[in-house]
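Provenance and format

Records in this collection were gathered into a single text stream. Each protein contributes a sequence line and a token line. The two records reproduced below are adjacent in the stream.
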Amino acid sequence: MKKILTLLFALLTVLVQAGAQTDTTGATAADTPEAVARLDSLVTSALKIGDYKMALRLNRDKTEALKRLYGETDSAYISTYATLAPLLYRTGDIDAAIAVSDSAASMYAANVSSADARYAFIVDNLGFYYASAGRYAEAEPAARKALAVYEKFYRNDYDLAVILTHAAEACAGNGKPKDAVAFEVRCLNIMKQLYGEHSDPYLAEAEYLVHYYGLAGDGEAAAELRARIDRLKAEAGDGVIDIPDPGSITSAEKAAWYNREAAVCADYLLNVSPEEAARTSAAAFLISWADATADVSVPVIEMITKPLSDERDRDFFVVYVAAVVSKSFAAGEKTLSSDDYAEAMETMVRYYEANRDYFGANDVLDGYAKLVRKGKFRKMAAAAFEEALKEAPAVR
């Protein structure tokens, strides 16, 4: 409730400011880049609490402010106008979402470009809204146009996968199941590269291909894929993972897709030899995941960084991160106690002791190891974490 009241107060302030006298160009005294930035921040806050109606109202205010400031042919205005469509869709007004996307695509093509990625995304969204309304005859050409534009950038990324799955859906709905199969196969190849075939995103997407095979009359292919999906799900349930590309984890939302993989990687890193071949890729993934996630907090204090003098010491830090991740998932808590973090750090020290011959001597860790053997290390580390968390409780 506090967040909502804060947003309402801020919105009231903006609306009061918007009542300022209008000049001869149509812009008000309150129409400034700073006011637009403030509205943008309010839109983000409304989205975080899931209030799409408020986000839509605020984004309309932002769009109108940009229009008064820069005019209807400005790229910032057109791009922001296009973002009204997803909010209209979220609030259930699909027809309005279609109208806005169609208009935005025309304005963007006329005033900015009909060949850049942003244009492809606007047109792809238009196709998606057409499909959502059951207007597949209009969805298909929009989807194909978006794909034709984006393919020219030669990016086998998540955005291309989304465009391909929308094209598949549009073709399936428009009576072209074989085209749907072709597009969905390409989508799945990208998803496999990005997330691995045991991942939730890949397995969820594969279900659509089963459906499209059925529509195309290829029951044998549908049955084979169904059996493969079931096998992969069973393997995933047994802990088998494909270590994803660390570069694909670009946000907390995407990191959340990989929570299961992060938990398995953490357990793996805590229990295998430093010479294990897959250790390097598992470590790279876990560090990228820990840096992006909003589900686990990994505080880094001076006691941890002090012994990390060169590249060979990186593995010790990875073990500390793995220990924190493992304990956080086991406890179901984002932030652990100072004692828990100290225990994770002690795990790092014991790992060093067990593999000292492999890594070579580290004077700082040797000192920590002596304190561990005397039973004094955890108390000292807990005090250090306690002090650090008071100053910066969200440090990762």
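Adjacent record:
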Amino acid sequence: MEEIKNLLAPVVSKIKDTIILNLNGCNNNGLFWGKTGATIFLFEFENAFLNDKIFDIANENIKYVISHFDKKNVSYVSGSSGIVSALNFLNSSDFIAASFSQEIYNKVDAMIFKQNTIVDLSINLCGITSYVLERYKYFKSDTSLAQLLRIERIICHVDAVDTFLNSSALPFSVIRDIFELNAKIDVLLLEVQNISNSAFLLNRIGKTTIYPTGTIRCQSLIISRIRKLLDIFNESIVKSSYFNAEHSSAFIFIITELYNALILVSGINESDLLNLSSSIVLLENEGFNKNDDNHWILNYKLITIQNLNNILAKCYNNSLHNVLLRHIQSFVAKEMNSLYNHEIPSNLGEKISIGIMGYAGIGLTLLQCMSSEPNWNSLTLKH
């Protein structure tokens, strides 16, 4: 752990400087791309390094977000449901006092209720359902129309998962071809992200009394599907000639994403940990040291680190710890090279996000690797 801390501390500090430098120039107040996500990182940084000056900056920034709150934009990624979810997180983590009146919550709820209840498995609508679920739990004994509408929204999302698993998911024959032909990787990535988002919500809904038959049925279906995907993956990866350096980052992301999802709905065993570790090592040999400039590859490598960290938090394994350390070292040495060497634009503007899908997310992930304390990634549907 000390090795990881020593490696990451200067990088995290530089990310802090970058975010502070660009706060005023950022026109987005949202969670994923803007000031709300940046503020979460600053509070977590202050908690890790006990810096009062950073706390003051974070506190002033969250006051700004609240004072410029747009209740008409209900988006989880960039609007009110994501901001309120972040404020709830900051409040429950004792970073801030309760910041919103009940009236503002009610207005956000009303905007969500006006939307069509048909949902898909995109991260934005999964995020909104996650917000609705938190509101349901807050009013657990309530029998008002608003609470019934919350329940309807949650049931609709379980049904959307059911539909995906029974009729919309890719046929296994197509998935096998994707693995073996290295074709249509983007289609497979979307499939895996839908599975991951579904597992997160099923995990949380399963802890309530809402729609137990539908939730249990979907949990059983998703466990079966993940297991089948992992079987196909493990069969294919042994024939390593199928894989090439160009897609190694994507395949490592896919396998860690699937195991992380499996933990949420059932748990994993020692055999799973062994398969995960050996599969990643094989893929690393194919393309781990390849220099990648694509932004999507950087994102997938970052999420891979999140996934490995989450898995290790649930079931520690020394081999996987060494895998995580290699990925962190590679990430810092290559993708973060310009940041570490102070080659940062004076103003990020719209080019690079400072939210949890940008620099704040990188910083939060690295902070989480330094300590098991931060649990921010529940906001990204990752935990």
